[in-house]
Amino acid sequence: MTQVDVITPTIGRQELRRAIASVRAQTIPARHLVILDDPRQEETVKSWLPDPGSEMALTRGRQGPAAARNMGVNLADAPFVAFLDDDDWWEPTKLAKQLAAIAAPSAFSDQIDGSRRISFTRTYFHRANGRVDAIPLGWPKSAHEIPDYLVARRSLTFGSGFLQTSSLLASRAMLQETPWDASVGHEDWDLIIRLTRSPSVSVHFVDEPLTHVQQASAGSLSRESTWLPSWSWFERHSSKLSPRAQADFIHTQLIRAALRERNARRLIAAPRRLKGRPHLAAALIAASGLAPRPRR
């Protein structure tokens, strides 16, 4: 049995071939579970899978990334699970360096229970304008800082606080205990907060960009966040946020979405929850919701 099972949800985009190649190029062996959320693409995706090392499972179709990832976790049998979105890819030493990191003491916990360990790497973020940045610039100092770390804006440029699905490696036991939840928006933030606030969790950061993430790729399986999913996320996690982080989320997610949707009722509802003042960058991002929507 390998130490890591890799789970990739997909609808059969061409970029999947690059993701598959990056899993095959890892310096340690890994079992790759490709979860196809569009059964019509079965034969095409099957032709891309190397043998051995990659397996494919099918959902009923268009179940969404959370359901596909949960299916993968249920099919996994390795001690650790890593997620790789189909448009992202890894450096060859990504899994090996994360496994080495989780064997060391964590700044968050001194416990040694291997069933409650998770790890993140830094990321090469490929922006839509062609620029590539290595992010984040720094890490949270404790698990209780992670909600603010994810949400609070520090500048107009995205990425000062960044923990992302394709950089995550976690023990399978934790992911079975704490599955992905499609009932709220911002599914990755939701999972990360619930995982890192679990009792005795041990969090390990690899301070090296080993994950490549493509911004705004076409045809992503993940849904675009709108007002209602963002509101459900805020209802669940607002108590964990500082007043400043609450204000930043309200502006960057709720007010911006209400402006995009031209929904006056929602625009009035969001500011009622304000307890702090947002960063100037968050206010400017909210105002971007007024930009004309592209014609379809």
Quick synopsis:
The chain has 296 residues and is an alpha/beta fold. Helix content is 34%, strand content 18%.
What are its keywords?
296 residues; 11 helices; 18% strand
Structure notes:
With 296 residues, this protein is of the alpha/beta class. It contains eleven helices and nine strands. Strands 1, 2, 3, 4, 5, 6, 7, 8 and 9 form a nine-stranded mixed beta sheet that branches. Helix 8 runs antiparallel to helix 9 and helix 9 (243-261) packs parallel to helix 11. The protein is globular. The N and C termini lie far apart (49 Å). The model has no long low-confidence stretch (mean pLDDT 91).
Classify the fold: give the CATH topology of the largest domain. Answer: Spore Coat Polysaccharide Biosynthesis Protein SpsA, Chain A
Helix-strand sequence: EHEHEHEEHEEHEHHEHHHH
Computed over alpha carbons, the radius of gyration is: 19 Å
CATH superfamily of the largest domain: Spore Coat Polysaccharide Biosynthesis Protein SpsA, Chain A
Rounded average pLDDT: 91
| Sheet with most strands | 9 strands, mixed
Query: In whole angstroms, how far apart are the ends?
Result: 49 Å
What is the strand and helix layout of this fold?
Layout: E1 4-10, H1 16-24, E2 31-36, H2 42-48, E3 54-58, H3 65-75, E4 80-83, E5 89-90, H4 94-102, E6 117-126, E7 132-135, H5 146-151, E8 169-171, H6 172-177, H7 187-196, E9 202-214, H8 227-237, H9 243-261, H10 264-269, H11 280-287
Parallel strand pairs: 1-2, 1-4, 2-3, 6-9
Antiparallel strand pairs: 4-8, 5-9, 6-7, 6-8
